[in-house]
TrEMBL record:
Listed GO MF terms: monooxygenase activity
Lineage top rank: taxon: Bacteria
UniProt organism field: Streptomyces exfoliatus (Streptomyces hydrogenans)
Keywords: Monooxygenase, Oxidoreductase
Annotated InterPro entries: ABM_dom, Dimeric_a/b-barrel
Keyword Membrane: no
A Pfam short name: ABM
Domain ABM intervals: 135-202
Record's protein name: Antibiotic biosynthesis monooxygenase
Length: 237
């Protein structure tokens, strides 16, 4: 089977059978090169048989910074990804690099499927996301219990926001724990970029629950970047 492109460019983040989520960042050097790289990825993958090694989906998001691409792929296991690297990856990357030379493949992190997910706005639940706020959190060393406890603290703060700080246009937030115990990734889906920007601007002073999140023991740092869904592929079609 060849790759099938989903029209809404959105993976099913709670797809059955997912054992690992691989997330990587590329720098491509400008909005035109972003578009060219996404098109090169599409052509490269749709012209080849889908690698039957446990890859369930492969999605690409375009950074609103005009430079980066975020890649999110779902696998049955981390070993399935290693098998793909050994047998299929170089050929695909070579074709993409020929179309868009000079891509900087910055970093790749390995996560488990979402540990917890939240609906941000009941009126927007189920909508197709037009923007994704990617929140990356890093801790001072590996600690799986701390990862889970930090996410649980975020959910306590979100529960307190339900009335005081609503999130119109927010679709869902999906928290992934890195397999090395050092990071948390939140893919927060929004109807559009403006909805997320307005929610951020309405933050105000930190309440006790959010202060605990931001000052959590062992928290080394965090950052938020916005992306637009660009491409989502899976077997079929």
């Amino acid at each position: 089977m060849n790759a099938f492109a989903h029209p809404d460019a959105r993976p099913d983040l709670h797809r059955p059978g997912v054992g690992a989520a691989l997330v990587s960042t590329w720098r491509v050097g400008g909005p035109e090169r972003q578009r060219a790289a996404v098109e090169a990825i599409r052509r490269t993958w749709e012209s080849r048989e889908w690698p039957d090694l446990g890859l369930l989906s492969y999605s690409v998001y375009t950074g609103t910074d005009g430079d980066t691409l975020l890649h999110y792929s779902q696998w049955t296991s981390e070993q399935a990804y290693e098998d793909f690297v050994r047998t299929y990856r170089d050929d695909r990357n070579a074709e993409i690099d020929a179309a868009v030379p000079g891509i900087d493949r910055v970093v790749l992190h390995r996560y488990a499927p979402p540990y917890r997910s939240a609906v941000l706005d009941e009126r927007s639940a189920g909508a197709v996301p037009g923007a994704v706020a990617v929140v990356e959190v890093e801790f001072e060393g590996p600690d799986a219990e701390r990862q889970r406890a930090w996410v649980d603290a975020v959910f306590t703060a979100l529960d307190g926001d339900a009335e005081q700080r609503p999130a119109p246009g927010g679709i869902g937030a999906h928290f992934h724990l890195s397999t090395d115990g050092t990071r948390v990734l939140n893919l927060a889906e929004w109807e559009n970029e403006q909805a997320h920007a307005q929610w951020q601007a309405a933050g105000g002073p930190l309440g006790e629950a959010w202060a605990r999140v931001h000052r959590y023991p062992g928290l080394a740092g965090s950052r938020v970047r916005r992306y637009t869904p660009a491409l989502s592929l899976s077997a079929g079609g």
